[in-house]
Every structure is written in C-alpha cells, then in structure tokens.
Design goal:
The protein is of the alpha/beta class and 395 residues long. It contains 15 helices and twelve strands.
C-alpha cells in the first residue's frame, strides 16, 4: 500500500478480512488458540512457523493496530503495550543492559523521569538529563557507554521542539540509538524515523485514541530492535495491550488525520488569543512566531499540534483560579481528547519531580497547560475568559 497517503493507510492498511468478509475490523477477545496438531503447536511455540500462540504476545486485533501504526510511522515493526509508560519501560528493557548509559532530555513527562531515576538505575542503567534544545549539552553528556538518547518533541508542557536530525547525528556518532516520543504530534504531524530516529514511542492513550477511552502504548522501529528485542520483553514480562483496547485504537486511527488538523487549527487560534490577553504573561506554542523553535517546527512538523501552555501573571493561586473558573473544560491531567482539558502541571503531571528540577525545567507555579479539543473555539475562549478577566479586574 506504498502508493496511498497517511489518511488512507490509517483507514485501510494493516488488516486482512476473515472468512466472514466483515467491513469493520474484527475483535478477537481470546486468550489462547487451538492448533490442528501437536506438530503445529510445537512449530508455533518455537517460532519456526508464524501464527497465533497466546494473546500475551500474539493477538489478531492487537496485530492489526501494530501493523497500521508501523505503516503510518514508516517503521518495519510495532509492538503494542498496556500503556505509554509500559512502552518506554519495554523499549529500554529491550535495548539497554546493566552498565549502559542513557542521555535524556530534562523536558520529559514527570513519571518518565521517575522511571529513569528510580527504577532504571536499580538495574545499573545510568541516566544524564540535559536541556532539550542545548545540543552542545547533548554532545557533552555522551560517555563511552552511552547507548541511547531519549526525548519528547514537542515537550510537555512547554512545547520545546528539538531538532531530530541534529540529535540523530549526535547519536550515530556514538553508535547510540535515538528514541523519540511522538505522542503529541502523532505520525500525521511528524515522522521521526524519516528524520533519523531509530525508535518511536507512543502513548496511544492520547491522540491515537482521541476520546479518552483506553490505556495503551506502542513502540515502532526496525524488525531487529523492536520486532525481536522489544517484543521479547513483552512476550516474557507481559505488559500487553488488550484486544479490546487495540480495537478502540484502530477505530481512533481512522479519524486521526482529520482530528489532528482540527486540533491544530483550534490550538493556533487559542494561542494567538491568549498571547494578547492582559492576564497572560507568556504563551508556549510552536505555531506562534514568538516560539523559540518556530522555524524548526515549521520544517519538522506539518502542523503545530493541540498542546499549549501559558503563564498567568501571578503564582499558583492565580493559575488555580483560572482553572477553577472554567465550567466546560475538563480539569484533568490527561490530554489528546476531543474534550479540551486543562491542568496545573506543577501540582499534577510533574508533581513527583523535585521542586528545584521543576523550576529549572520551566514548570513554574503560574503555568497552565491546555490540550485543545474539538469544541467550538468560541466556547473554549468564553470558558477561559471568566477566570482570566477576573485576574485582570483584581490587579
């Protein structure tokens, strides 16, 4: 299906109809499979003959999701997991060993930082954090045992955009892997593998689903790295995506291109409006010309995406007052939903990060994050306006 566009691949690719000739992908809620003979069972378990073995690591519905996402990202293989965090864990359990060193952007999800600092280090994997867009810092952090570089771009919540091609060169000079979390752009807006990344990670929970229904994650890359090493972790350790969740994500992929375009349009309009509001100190959004990496985002992404954040004039009290004044927006730390969500990163998504590290990363007490949904942009503005105007009237 190489001749088809991403929009078509998301709808048509990665699935073979069963004998029932269904038009919508089938759901296979089964734990195990029946074999025609003892020999066939032995061949399947040994891997000599491909086919279903056990739904911890082979399920037709999960495989359909994996095939679709691999095609969309331009990868050879995809492994689906129970959550985005399970994807990150499985990725590094499959590609790193005790004594290895990982260089990571400091601008990553707070729980990912905890995973690196608290748990990977238990298994003898050392981690160095560097500023996301300081490429000299990335180079300086490289050690003889550095085996991987990791980042989210754009970052959460400050939307820092890193140059994937530049980081790929740094990684390749060391013989290390470049692993990119593409959760916020999805393959519709950005394809890291084509820019030199070795592995792409997703929290399918976010935009791939698009309606906040299920947890899931995915790792995409080469057959050797992902199809064998990472899949081996899933097969043995079992952080597996359920067939039902995979089926939901398959349905989400069908509208992904339309949604990401609409998300980006609304987020652009909201970011421009917020940047002019007297209660707002600064807006972080790659679609604004004031964004430090605006030109890079224009080259690397096909659209700026749905995620933005802004600093109100004041501190935590003022930020919370804006959030609490909303009636329609969902006060939740999740994102990527058709429902617009709003949260205070310092006390939610990044609350487990040390306060000093939060401040260094720019996660200030007056920062508010919004994942722009698909409601009327006029209604989103109106819901935010109450709290923002209240701040102005009190100053």
């Amino acid at each position: 299906m190489d001749q088809f566009s991403l929009e078509t691949l998301a709808i048509r690719a990665g699935y073979e109809r069963t004998h029932e000739q269904e038009n919508s992908e089938a759901l296979f809620p089964t734990s195990s499979y029946v074999y025609e003979s003892a020999q066939q069972a032995a061949d399947r378990f040994s891997g000599e003959v491909p086919g279903n073995v056990y739904s911890r690591f082979t399920n037709p519905t999960v495989r359909t999701f994996e095939n679709k996402l691999a095609l969309l990202e331009g990868g050879e293989a995809c492994v689906a997991t129970a959550s985005g965090m399970a994807a990150i864990l499985a990725c590094f359990m499959g590609t790193l060993s005790a004594g290895d060193h990982l260089v990571s952007s400091a601008s990553i999800f707070g729980t990912t930082k905890v995973l690196f600092n608290k748990y990977l280090k238990k298994f003898g994997i050392d981690v160095t954090f560097v500023p996301q867009t300081d490429y000299q810092a990335w180079s300086n952090a490289i050690q003889p045992n550095t085996k991987a570089l990791f980042l989210e771009t754009p970052s959460n919540p400050l939307t820092e955009v890193a140059d994937i091609m530049r980081l790929s060169k740094i990684a390749k000079a060391q013989g290390a892997l470049l692993v990119v979390d593409n959760c916020f752009c999805t393959p519709i807006l950005q394809q890291p593998l084509k820019l030199g990344a070795d592995i792409v990670i997703h929290s399918a929970t976010k935009f791939l689903d698009g309606q906040g229904r299920c947890l899931g994650g995915a790792i995409v890359g080469s057959q050797a790295l992902v199809g064998e090493e990472v899949r081996g972790v899933i097969r043995t350790a079992g952080p597996t995506m359920s067939p039902f969740n995979a089926w939901v994500f398959i349905k989400g992929l069908e509208t992904l291109a339309l949604r990401m375009e609409a998300h980006s349009q609304r987020a652009q309009t909201l970011a421009e409006w917020l940047s002019e509001h007297p209660a707002v100190d600064r807006v972080f959004y790659p679609g604004l010309t004031s964004h430090p990496q605006y030109e890079l985002a224009q080259r690397q992404q096909s659209a700026p995406g749905a995620l933005l954040s802004f600093r109100v004039k004041g501190g935590r009290e003022q930020a919370w007052s804006v959030i609490d004044a909303t009636n329609m927006l969902s006060i939740t730390a999740n994102l990527g939903d058709v429902k617009t969500s709003i949260t205070h990163p310092a006390s939610t998504t990044h609350s487990r990060v040390d306060a000093v590290d939060r401040e260094k990363a720019g996660i200030t007490e007056n920062l508010v994050r919004i994942s722009v949904g698909l409601e009327s942009i006029a209604d989103i503005k109106r819901d935010l306006e109450k709290g923002l105007n209240h701040l102005v009237s009190n100053n």
